[in-house]
Amino acid sequence: MLNRYPLWKNLLIVFVLLLGALYAAPNLYPEDYAIQLSGTRDIHQVDQALMDKVTAAIENGGLEIKESELLDKSGLIRFTDSETQLKAKQIVSQAVGENYVVALNLAPTTPDWLTDIGAGPMKLGLDLRGGVHFLLEVDMAQAVGQRLDVYVSEIKTKLRQDKLRYRAVEHLDDGSLSVKFSSPETRDQALSLLRKDYPEFLISAEDADGANFLTIMLTEATVRSIEDYAIKQNLTTLRNRVNELGVAEPLVQRQGRNRIVVQLPGVQDAAAAKRIIGKTANLEFRLEAKTDANSALTETYDFRSEPGRKARLEKDIIITGSSVSNAQASFDENGQPQVNISLDSKGGQLMNRTTRNAVKRRMAVLFVEHKSRMVTETVDGEKVEKRVPYVEKKIISLATIQSVLGSQFRITGLDGAGESSELALLLRAGALAAPIYFVEERTVGPSLGAENIELGVTSVQIGFALVLIFMAITYRVFGLLANVALCLNLVLLVAVMSMLSATLTLPGIAGIVLTVGMAVDANVLIFARIKEELKNGLPPQSAINAGFDRAFTTIFDANITTLLAAVILFAMGTGPVKGFAVTLSVGIVTSVFTAIWVTRALVNLTYGGRQLKKLSI
Amino acid sequence: MSENTKIYDFMGYRKIATMFSAILLVISIGAIAVQGLKLGLDFTGGSLVEVGYQQDANLTEIRDQLEAAGFQDAVVQTFGAPTDILIRLGADHDPKLGDKVLAALQAGGDTSIELRRNEFVGAQVGEELREQGGLGMLLALFMIMVYVAFRFQLKFSIGAVAALAHDVLIVVGFFALFQVEFDLTVLAAVLAVIGYSLNDTIVVSDRIRENFRMMRKGSPTEVLNASLSQTLSRTVITSVTTLLVLIALAVFGGEMIHGFALALLVGVLIGTYSSIYVAANALVMMGICKEDLMPPPKEEDEVLDEMP
């Protein structure tokens, strides 16, 4: 019979739509303002006792809790409004102390039966939710340079071991190493030795100014792997730091060859976040130089808090901040800020071995910071801004070693309580393998986010209503059927976006609006064809059939090409633009489904298998 | 084929349309070359801070306050509403910039001012984005050309890409001429215009191909006129629905996507026009004929006959 779908086809369509409705449903439940509580390390787990203590503290503060629950390793406390949430955060932070992280969060209220099937609401982008977005660039030249410095000392040791006399091993500015010999024979022996042991070197020999040189470059693959390592190391450190900041659902991700994206939804104090994230602070522990020490083996540094005061230290570093396994800020007996440090076993041994022979000598703690300044240079007549990195090392404490130190000790001489807790945090989270610089930053306030959502939703509603009215007027019954399909399209779009846990951004909402406008296109194409076929004298049922059939290839071609443009947009876009590309692509796919199959099913149900004289189109 | 549709003589006006397109293109290219685009922060790099006032803000007062606080090169303007102020600053970046600006403004006594947005884009990032944007656009055009050449025929593909390039140039030209800020969302809109205009062009091309195969008699111009007339109602209705939602977006969507909505509005209007007058016109100019679109002959001897 003409224009009847077989039962299985109708059932399939109903099934897809029901599935869509199910997965779109979580978006209908509003989110709760919540605070999330989690331990900074594994020994500090959140348990029921802690939760009871926290909830009691909140209630004592006169605040109302909507619900509190103990999750796998963390606790979640829900409130009815954001004001209560903010007040409660302060109370909780004080109640639990430094071993726990308290984060502001928006908790979904999706019922359990929906979460059980993997359904959840769409994520909101930073422009809708408020928060901070950073793009960081890792200083790769520095990362490679650090490795080259290590090679310099390795090569020296190797040549000494093999009794090959060299005159100098230097790390040149262009990223190569130069080894200077006084005879070509030694040079050639060294060449074959290094070739054998270091397959990652590209070595060339040359003679100049009466000396014999080896020039060593790193292979491209080695440079790449050093860079990869630096990025991975930095990602880990940044993740640790972000976790320490207490942000719910942060994003820390590599982007391109040398960049890292950090997104912190809900964070308002961008400056604080940035200080913690971007800090390349590290510590070095060194002994003070003896008065008769060779000046080639010592270096002189300034004190950080006492301008003018200097101290001469040994060049040898006992340990650095990377040997620190835990660090806690506290106050000493005089109320001065201090950081209690625990070292890992290797660090503890090193510290023990060094201090054993150095009791009554003084040990300095150097605060090392990578910084950069912008310098304007004139290159080829054009002013170019260049970033010049530099390292600042200052002494924060110089204290007499009273007894042999082990893996536990404390450092003092810090500027204030803020600095001690920041230093403790940085030591816990680990140092960055290479310095990073901020190349992009975007902060969106919460009120702007809320406003953006409101504006977006309003424009979707109004645009949608206008299209529905227009279609109903233009195509009457068919227009109404198309409208039903259009509504279902929106449900499916939201469902797919939720399933992919895609992020909804403001341009994403614009994409939905645009999809609504363009989704009717397929229906318009079909209806225009049906009208034409009717004019050509085809009976209504055949006209419907022919209209759908003949419009199909057109719809297919037209949408594939648009999809192509959307995919390219996705590939090259970042952040919000990606969000737009995602909604546009998903919208194209769902609109083809609803416009072709759903509308057809509806038309079949309305008109199929009946004798018709006229169509309301 | 349909004889009941009224056939309009679209191609009769093709000389006028060519002139019209040529003028628009000259103005656009001229505007881009002479005035240039007013590129947004995304592409130039720099800092901006958006603050919200309770009452309508006094721009001169804000400028004075900022100058007094040492922000000499600040550009102050309203953003959407008179209570909403956008402050653009040079390329130096300071993590506390937003707070500093806010403090400078609140020093005037009004503590209800709120920091809404604070953005910084490094000059390098902006430059890369500019390159990437242009590259992405070219890549999109190329991929589409390949697809259309594969699905239709080379002349159609040239026609389609000519129409797209026409649309992109005019939309970008519009932004240059009226010095509307061109940011990342506008670039996204331009790519969406490519998608939309293409959609339109494909629908028309599809009908042209069908009619070339089905109409026994009739010159290429007649075939094109018939095809354009048959698709006219669809072209108009789709444009109207899309324009309806875009107007809703432009009016109610807020300042942040204003440029986006504007680019699409211009793009949809020009895209609708170009699918009729640029793509089809290009086909006439390239001398499209029935033979271009006939399915390749299948019978063996016919192939042999063609051999000289």
Overall description:
The complex is a heterodimer of chains A (617) and B (308). With 617 residues, chain A is of the alpha+beta class. Chain A is 49% helix and 26% strand. Chain A folds into 4 domains: 7-26 and 450-607, Multidrug efflux transporter AcrB transmembrane fold (Up-down Bundle), CATH 1.20.1640.10; 32-107, 2-Layer Sandwich (Alpha-Beta Plaits); 133-280 and 432-444, 2-Layer Sandwich (Alpha-Beta Plaits); 282-412, 2-Layer Sandwich (Gyrase A, domain 2), CATH 3.30.1360. Chain A has a 4-stranded antiparallel beta sheet with strand order 2-3-1-4. Chain A has a 4-stranded antiparallel beta sheet with strand order 11-12-6-22. In chain A, a hairpin with a 7-residue loop joins strand 14 (298-302) and strand 15. Chain B has 2 domains: 10-38 and 125-293, Multidrug efflux transporter AcrB transmembrane domain (Multidrug efflux transporter AcrB transmembrane fold, Up-down Bundle); 46-121, Alpha-Beta Plaits. Chain B has helices at 14-34, 41-44, 59-68, 97-106, 123-151, 154-177, 184-214, 220-252, 258-277, 279-285, 290-293, 300-306; strands at residues 38-39, 46-52, 75-79, 81-89, 114-121, 181-182. In chain B, strand 3 (75-79) and strand 4 (81-89) form a beta hairpin. The longest helix of chain B has 33 residues, at 220-252. The two termini of chain B are 36 Å apart. The chains are: A alpha+beta (617), B alpha+beta (308). At the A-B interface, helix 9, strand 22, helix 12, helix 13 and helix 14 of A face strand 5, helix 5, helix 7, helix 8 and helix 9 of B. Chain B: Part of the Sec protein translocase complex. Interacts with the SecYEG preprotein conducting channel. SecDF uses the proton motive force (PMF) to complete protein translocation after the ATP-dependent function of SecA. Chain B: InterPro entries: SecD/SecF_arch_bac, SecD/SecF_bac, SecD/SecF_CS, SecD_SecF_C, SecD_SecF_C_bact, SecF_bac. Chain B: Belongs to the SecD/SecF family. SecF subfamily. Chain B: The chain crosses the membrane at residues 16-37, 133-150, 157-178, 184-205, 236-254, 260-284.
